[in-house]
């Protein structure tokens, strides 16, 4: 398992995403899957930076591993507890101007991944995003 640790500052995000992209490439993850995971990680890490560590300094640890046709990215932080798996699906019906602001980020993460798991262990949020790797013939 390869990992990278970053400061929970928006300025750290581009470097973190670049590192994740490089790690996934070394793990032999196809480019389409890398792009989808990159978008999901971008959203998850941005949420931690903006909403988790609102007035705190902190670190975020990202680790990637591949197990057969599944690749998983583990995101750890020490911000206050937040379980994104308990966030209800947003109401996407009606006019966009009439919908409440927010809530689409987690919806987006769900659409980009095949697996989302959360646990709170020893004062840390642990979010695991999994994506099944499809072969070129779509299986």
Automatic annotation (TrEMBL):
Alphabetical list of InterPro entries matching this protein: Anti-sigma-factor_SerPK, HATPase_C_sf, HATPase_dom
Enzyme class: transferase
GO molecular function, a single term: protein serine/threonine kinase activity
Location of the Histidine kinase/HSP90-like ATPase domain: 8-129
Pfam families: HATPase_c_2
Keywords attached to this entry: Kinase, Serine/threonine-protein kinase, Transferase
EC number(s) stated in the UniProt entry for this protein: 2.7.11.1
Acidic residues composition bias: residue spans: 86-95
Cited SUPFAM superfamilies: ATPase domain of HSP90 chaperone/DNA topoisomerase II/histidine kinase
Region feature Disordered, mapped onto this chain: 77-99
Protein name per Swiss-Prot or TrEMBL: Anti-sigma regulatory factor, serine/threonine protein kinase
Originating organism: Methanoculleus bourgensis (strain ATCC 43281 / DSM 3045 / OCM 15 / MS2) (Methanogenium bourgense)
Phylogenetic placement of the source organism: Archaea, Methanobacteriati, Methanobacteriota, Stenosarchaea group, Methanomicrobia
